[in-house]
């Protein structure tokens, strides 16, 4: 499993990148708004993220028609070679993905919740598909169960390698709210988990690690004073 950071916060991205396990970043309009992002600075902001991260950086189109999404996608892809265009899973999004993929522009289909949506995204040529876990849980549905179904269904078929780098479509477990979501996503074989920085920090920590470290430090103090 690879880890992406689900944020538009440059400080979080720089810090996570320094830990050595950051394979990419995903952003969305809400995450950009959260860091006080302005429309006029959007492309520059994505460029700054691309300069920090050695991996795919998803930047979302907010257009609603296929022509506008394609236009948005081309502009976003021109920002840096590692930009991935994030497109919502809807009819206009599928049509735009089909066009962008044919041009060699990688697409991450987002707001994906079901197996049929995921298969349609893969057929349209998406490089990444992002099933949402937490938002399913929010409506008292089984987010992890849906993710497991998507992973199993996509792996049932040999989707044509994309035109960008010959790699198969990858599943990004998105809307991740806990380290346990990451554990379960890894066990079911999701290719990538995109996690908020707070979850990434929790993934590192364990009370037994803290307790063990504390005991080691106290015993080392005894050694020094012996
Ligand atoms: O845009 C994709 C995010 O992973 C959504 O996460 P969220 O449900 O926590 O906002």
TrEMBL record:
Keyword Cytoplasm: yes
InterPro entries, sorted: Aldolase_TIM, TAL/FSA, Transaldolase_3B/F6P_aldolase, TSA/FSA_arc/bac
Lineage: superkingdom: Bacteria
Keyword tags: Cytoplasm, Schiff base
Pfam entry (one): TAL_FSA
Positions in coiled-coil regions: none
Protein name: Transaldolase
Annotated source species: Raoultibacter timonensis
């Amino acid at each position: 499993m690879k880890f992406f950071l689900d944020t538009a916060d440059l400080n979080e991205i720089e810090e996570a990148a320094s830990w050595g396990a950051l394979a990419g970043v995903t952003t969305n309009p809400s995450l950009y708004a959260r860091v006080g992002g302005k429309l006029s600075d959007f492309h520059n902001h994505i460029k700054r993220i691309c300069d920090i991260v050695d991996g795919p950086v998803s930047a979302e189109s907010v257009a609603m028609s296929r022509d506008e999404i394609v236009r948005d996608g081309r502009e976003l892809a021109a920002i840096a070679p590692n930009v991935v265009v994030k497109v919502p899973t809807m009819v206009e999004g599928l049509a735009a993905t089909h066009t962008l993929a044919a041009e060699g522009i990688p697409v991450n289909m987002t707001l994906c919740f079901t197996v049929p949506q995921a298969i349609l995204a893969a057929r349209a040529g998406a490089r990444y598909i992002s099933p949402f876990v937490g938002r399913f849980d929010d409506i008292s549905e089984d987010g992890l169960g849906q993710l497991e179904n998507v992973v199993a269904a996509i792996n049932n078929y040999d989707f044509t390698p994309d035109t960008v780098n010959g790699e198969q479509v990858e599943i990004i477990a998105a809307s991740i709210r806990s380290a346990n979501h990451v554990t379960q996503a890894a066990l079911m074989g999701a290719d990538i988990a995109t996690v908020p920085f707070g979850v990434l920090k929790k993934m590192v920590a364990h009370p037994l690690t803290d307790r063990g470290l504390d005991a080691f430090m106290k015993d080392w103090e005894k050694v020094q004073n012996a």
